[in-house]
Amino acid sequence: MSLAETMITVAPTGAETAKADAPALPVTLSELVETARACEAAGAAMIHVHIRDDAAQPTLDLGRLTETVAAVRDGSGLLVQLSTGGSVHDPFEDRLAVLEAAPDSCSLTCGTVNFGDDVFLNPWPFMVELYRRTQEAGIVPEFELFDLGQVHALNRLLDEYGPPSGGHVHCDFVMGVPGGMPASLEALLTGVRALPAGASWSATGVGRGTLPVALGALAAGGHLRVGMEDTLTYAKGEPVRDNAQLVARAAELARLAQRPPMSPAAARSMLGVKDRRGEGAA
Ligand code: KMH
Ligand code: ZN
């Protein structure tokens, strides 16, 4: 792995967009596996997964999650990161149980944040419980940062409970959510300066923040997250065609910045993710 490379994570689905509003949104298992394959070919190394039920509604059904992890691993080389954020309506117990699907990585949001008209709840005791379970299960957390105060909560979590599984701290700034930090360079650089020493980070700008945040992250030495969870418009008046289109653009920006896309194998080594291929869920 070269430090000059860019890890691209694709977040293809999310929990907020209806399939009827974005027909290219992958909501079935086969759509998700096909998306993983196409995004890997376009330059992604990791996939941040939310799943849907048969009615295309967000679900944290453990059987489906377990099947999804296996199918994405079979169908692509991408590192599989499951969302523990789910939708704003998911109960804490279901969000904790996500780890039982044995993904390579999981998201761990470092505090409660307003989320449009809703509230994305991540109180301190929940963060601690989720973190301790990742340590016990050997799953590498990605610390999601929606606001600058959450960077300080991350430092507190590490100070009080020690390093994550794999020993390496990796974070993702999610910028421009209504209620969180803005998708500005000032906020990004303030957040980066407050990270623990040695941490790696990616950034994603929601909606029209996508390109400024991606360009800023590349310039500041960060990695990229893109996908239809965060962005449905490719350019003014032009809907996103599919997730691979967003990954291809991120890969092109990374190459222009002389920081080409990182392979899944290099990302695995950077993050300290153990190889679970061939292992069933716990
Ligand atoms: N859907 C949001 C409420 C995560 O995946 O961990 C939370 C979210 C963050 O997407
Ligand atoms: Zn998510």
Give the ordered list of helices and strands: EHEEEHEHEEEHEHEHEHEEEHH
Radius of gyration: 17 Å
Outline the biggest β-sheet: 8 strands, parallel, barrel
Question: pLDDT under 50 segments (min length 5)?
Answer: none
CATH architecture group name: Alpha-Beta Barrel
Order of strands, widest sheet: 1-2-5-6-9-10-11-12
SS field, number of helical segments: 9
The distinct ligands, each listed once, are: (5S)-5-amino-3-OXO-hexanoic acid, zinc ion
CATH topology: TIM Barrel
- Structural class, by secondary structure, is alpha/beta
- Termini distance? 30 Å
Approximate strand percentage: 15-25%
Assigned CATH class: Alpha Beta
User: What number of structural domains do the residues give?
Assistant: 1
**Helical proportion, percent range:** 25-40%
What quaternary form is this? single chain
Walk me through what this model shows.
The chain is of the alpha/beta class and about 280 residues long. The protein has one domain: TIM Barrel, CATH 3.20.20.70. About 35% of the residues lie in helices and about 20% in strands. The chain is built from nine helices and 14 strands. The strands form four sheets. It has an eight-stranded parallel barrel with strand order 1-2-5-6-9-10-11-12, surrounded by eight helices. Strands 3-4 form a two-stranded antiparallel sheet. It has a two-stranded antiparallel sheet with strand order 7-8. A hairpin with a 2-residue loop joins β13 and β14. α1 runs parallel beside α2 and α1 packs parallel to α8. The longest helix is centred in the first third of the chain and has 14 residues. The protein binds (5S)-5-amino-3-OXO-hexanoic acid and zinc ion. (5S)-5-amino-3-OXO-hexanoic acid (KMH) binds next to β6. (5S)-5-amino-3-OXO-hexanoic acid binds next to β6.
